[in-house]
Amino acid sequence: MRPPSITRGDHRTETHSIVATDGTLLTLLHVRGPREPDRGPVLLVHGAGVRAELFRPPIPYTIVDSLLDRGWDVWLLNWRASIDLPLNPWTLTAAALHDHPVAVRAIREATGAASLSAIVHCQGSTSFALAAAAGLLPDVDTIVSNAVALHPVIPAFARFKLLTMAPWISRMTGYLSPAWAYRSDGVFSRITRRAVALTHPECDNLVCRMVSFTYGSGRPALWSHRHLDERTHDWITGEFAAVPMSFFAEMGSSVRAGHLVPSAGSALPADAATTAPRSAARFALFAGEDNRCFLPESQRRTFAHLERYQPGRHSLHIIKGYGHLDVFLGRDAWRDVHPLMLKELER
């Protein structure tokens, strides 16, 4: 089995600036292939402390290539957590309220489409799922969610770091950054880099090791090295940067509760993750079996929650041998993962 023909060299990318409802500047990347799309628009939403380019790693055939090959009209969102935007004390609640509804509306206005689909990853997925569950995304018909949606479940050591260490760390710094591996920002960043170097001996890429310290439990936490080719393993050095402690505090509250908890005083319904979804969107939930950032139980719980209110409508896929991000960065993801996601989009 060989991948089809479209590659990064065939992409034509246009950048569109949009403004969230609270005034935050965001960008949408519209990616076109050699031919005009004959399917509707699909929005891709990245996770925390990365950017839209997450979906275009230097592997021969990315999820963007797969979508273009199947005729989809591809849009990538840099929401407020993107490292391509100025660092800000963002929260999932703010993204759900202000970013995702504006992005969906902008794509519909640009394309004339009545609705669109989405592929959402990690904190792009949690914030997008929160917006959908709150009824803010009525024009989204299919949501392919990777890693976690409404019910974050994390490994025991990651839970200790999030609930015990993060409050202490927040007194020392306003953010954590894997980029401290090569760029210091004060004494705390240098101490952290040294501690990670001593406790994470799994590879020679200190950014890779810093990512594991920041986001999960494992060596490494977000992928299996066997899935990443050397070029991609080097590429991640420039693809991870700062994440504010405001996010870790919000996620800590959600992990304690067992479901997403909107920030106090926000316009989001407090019960958005615990009652019937205010959305007709169909969720296709994906989780790597070996994910050490958010355990597969996260997606199992969201699937059970959705099925309770909309039985038979949603789907769940646990991908054997994959973790958190190698679902998109893996050299063989085009064969092992993309077909399942495309099938869900085309249902």
TrEMBL record:
A family per Pfam: Abhydrolase_1
InterPro entries in alphabetical order: AB_hydrolase_1, AB_hydrolase_fold, Cholesterol_Oxidase
Record flagged with keyword Acetylation: no
Alphabetical UniProt keywords: FAD, Flavoprotein, Hydrolase, Oxidoreductase
Recorded family membership: Belongs to the GMC oxidoreductase family.
Top-level taxonomic group: Bacteria
Residue span(s) of domain AB hydrolase-1: 41-198
Cofactors that this protein relies on: FAD
The keyword Ubl conjugation is annotated on this UniProt entry: no
Protein name (record): Alpha/beta fold hydrolase
